[in-house]
Recover the amino acids of this structure.
């Protein structure tokens, strides 16, 4: 009986043109976004690879010189675009993709508290993810707003119920019809997306890409299923189709237009982040305080690079100073990043009622384009900066400090440059991504549970008259 | 068999149906006459369990419809005044769908065509979208659904309203054939002529009460009209 209802509903939507026109537009947009995303990612990846190779070649080609000069040249870490950024670029467009691994300082180029935090909460560009998150629910509404209300208006519902059809069968049948419709529309896009992801994945990461794609698909299934049941519930509870579409459009506007902005603002007020100026001031003060302690403890003075410290200890001083700064950077950046993640978590929790917020976070997480992945990359880049820093400082201690007053006459060569490996970043596993996104997944499941309960109650209480 | 025992429906202070006692036996056609708001449609809705009674019971084949709403619907077919079908589907597709819902299985096309032929639907129309059907044609499709169910009782809510005389006559013939095969028919109508010539028994309702119940064979057209007008005017 459920399949009979589903097939009839689907046939009607096909014949009345809703599936073809509304679905066709969405499908066309999906395919366009997929093509654009694939092209952009291929281009960006090629540029990143070339830049990373060229940058490391520049490091290796350095002439013989004082190691500290080499540390100031540093390297650049280029963030590789995750293969699923084809489908959801997440926060990538707003945060840049290059970090300068320079001496003494954890690069600030990517950390702009006032600007980046806003970027984290913005909508993405036209992408498969954006279309599914924003236009997907609209398509569900178009397909299902009159599923019950329209039939009640026409009198068909009364006749159908007079046949002894259980109301829950109608709910499942109509839900399946919308589901079949969506599947029929999404299938070509899903197959092409899977193909693009698998073709675009680097060797050895195909399985990971496949798992991440499956996670993404599961997330969107929960998200769109929640909207299917909300739509059917509202349709069953509404006296007319006009009331149903008005209520559903209001729900859509709240979910995709109002909620992201309101929750973004709310989360920033609940967990305030410093401005860039405040952050830099606090970081500088913390660095100075820590540095003063280090110099006082080791050299009996807070005057850095003064007469009290002989040149034979400048390599050592450099190493001690940098090592002390590591904890300061970890503390300050860690605090800032934790705050951003708390803001993000607050938004994700609200996704139990406003599922776009959870879906957006989950989609970015599964695609590897969310802040958690960005943080992982940044941490890896900082580890590499410290590796360069330590190699250079160790070389100074070992070879330059022993020269006493001739410290600055020391020059290193290719053997030191080659001892520093090229920066290579491996994205975290899908399991890691899932562990980071559990909150979003839970909230999406809760949203589905709530919408299912709502639709069930609406259908059970609906009147045939 | 259709049976109402003390069936009452209250909407706040308003009594839509007042202690209705009624029995329609297999093979009988009981026509309920009455002005708008007399309680005719309320009676049908109570038998279909679309609304809950305030008191009393409605039974189909001895089973209380409130206790087994889905089960009792298997034994009854309901034909409303305005039959609504899916406009994008053809007559045979509508019949196939609704009969599948009623029987929980799909009838083969030959059987569907046979049913449509039985109700007299033009064979040229069966594969055309129902949106182009007249009211009478839609009604025929729905009667075919009722025939497919092979029910023991029929509930009709002003079925001939808006039908042309020829279609109304055809419809009366269908009802008569159904009753002759042992179906209990309860129909509401404003049409005294239809009630007299189709019904085996006639009831007149007024302000929620069944004020007359008589055998149609024992009253003439003129007397029925006088009786009806007397009740309506009183």
């Amino acid at each position: 009986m459920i399949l009979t209802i589903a097939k009839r509903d689907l046939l009607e939507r096909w014949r009345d043109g809703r599936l073809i026109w509304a679905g066709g537009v969405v499908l066309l947009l999906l395919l366009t976004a997929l093509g654009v995303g694939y092209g952009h990612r291929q281009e960006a990846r090629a540029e990143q690879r070339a830049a990373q190779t060229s940058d490391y070649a520049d490091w290796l080609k350095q002439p013989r010189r004082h190691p500290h000069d080499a540390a100031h040249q540093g390297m650049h870490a280029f963030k590789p675009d995750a293969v699923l950024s084809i489908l959801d670029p997440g926060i990538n467009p707003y945060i840049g993709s290059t970090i300068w691994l320079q001496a003494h300082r954890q690069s600030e180029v990517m950390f702009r508290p006032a600007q980046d935090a806003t970027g984290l909460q913005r909508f993405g560009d036209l992408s498969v993810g954006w279309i599914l998150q924003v236009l997907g629910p609209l398509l569900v509404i178009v397909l299902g707003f009159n599923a019950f209300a329209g039939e009640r208006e026409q009198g068909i519902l009364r006749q159908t119920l007079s046949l002894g059809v259980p109301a829950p069968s109608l709910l499942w049948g109509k839900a399946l019809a919308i589901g079949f419709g969506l599947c029929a529309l999404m299938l070509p896009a899903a197959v092409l997306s899977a193909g693009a992801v698998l073709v675009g994945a680097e060797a050895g990461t195909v399985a990971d890409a496949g798992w991440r794609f499956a996670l993404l698909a599961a997330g969107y299934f929960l998200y769109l299923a929640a909207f299917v049941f909300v739509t059917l519930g509202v349709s069953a509870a509404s006296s007319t189709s006009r009331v149903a579409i008005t209520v559903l459009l209001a729900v859509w506007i709240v979910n995709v237009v109002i909620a992201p902005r309101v929750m973004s603002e709310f989360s920033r007020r609940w967990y305030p982040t410093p401005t860039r100026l405040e952050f830099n001031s606090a970081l500088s003060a913390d660095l100075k305080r820590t540095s003063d302690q280090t110099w006082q403890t080791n050299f009996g003075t807070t005057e850095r690079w003064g007469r009290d410290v002989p040149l034979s200890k400048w390599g050592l001083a450099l190493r001690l100073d940098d090592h002390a700064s590591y904890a300061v950077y970890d503390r300050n950046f860690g605090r800032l990043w934790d705050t951003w993640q708390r803001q993000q978590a607050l938004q994700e929790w609200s996704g139990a009622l406003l599922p776009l917020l959870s879906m957006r976070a989950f989609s970015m997480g599964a695609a590897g384009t969310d802040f958690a992945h960005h943080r992982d990359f940044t941490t890896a880049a900082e580890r590499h900066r410290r590796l360069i820093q330590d190699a250079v400082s160790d070389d100074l201690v070992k070879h330059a400090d022993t020269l006493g007053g001739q410290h600055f006459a020391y020059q290193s060569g290719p053997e030191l440059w080659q001892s520093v490996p090229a920066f290579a970043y491996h994205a975290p596993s899908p399991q890691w991504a899932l562990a980071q996104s559990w909150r979003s997944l839970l909230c999406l499941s809760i949203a589905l549970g709530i919408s299912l309960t709502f639709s069930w109650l609406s259908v059970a209480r609906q009147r045939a008259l | 068999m259709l049976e109402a025992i003390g069936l009452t429906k209250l909407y706040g202070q308003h009594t839509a149906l007042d202690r209705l006692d009624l029995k329609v036996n297999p093979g009988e056609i009981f026509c309920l006459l009455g002005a708008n708001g007399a309680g005719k449609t309320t009676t049908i809705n109570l038998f279909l369990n679309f609304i809950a009674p305030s008191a009393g019971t409605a039974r189909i084949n001895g089973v209380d419809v409130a206790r087994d709403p889905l089960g009792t619907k298997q034994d009854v077919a309901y034909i409303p005044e305005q039959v609504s079908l899916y406009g994008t589907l053809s007559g045979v597709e509508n019949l196939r769908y609704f009969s599948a819902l009623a029987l929980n299985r799909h009838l083969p096309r030959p059987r569907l065509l046979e049913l449509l032929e039985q109700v007299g639907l033009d064979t040229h129309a069966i594969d055309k979208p129902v949106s182009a059907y007249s009211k009478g044609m839609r009604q025929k499709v729905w009667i075919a659904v009722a025939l497919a169910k092979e029910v023991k009782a029929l509930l009709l809510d002003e079925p001939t309203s808006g039908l042309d005389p020829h279609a109304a006559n055809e419809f009366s013939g269908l009802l008569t054939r159904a009753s002759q095969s042992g179906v209990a028919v309860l129909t509401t109508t404003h049409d005294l002529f239809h009630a007299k010539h189709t019904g085996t028994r006639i009831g007149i309702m007024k302000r929620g009460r069944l004020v007359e119940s008589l055998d149609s064979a024992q009253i003439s057209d003129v007397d029925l009209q006088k009786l009806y007008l007397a009740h309506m005017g009183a």
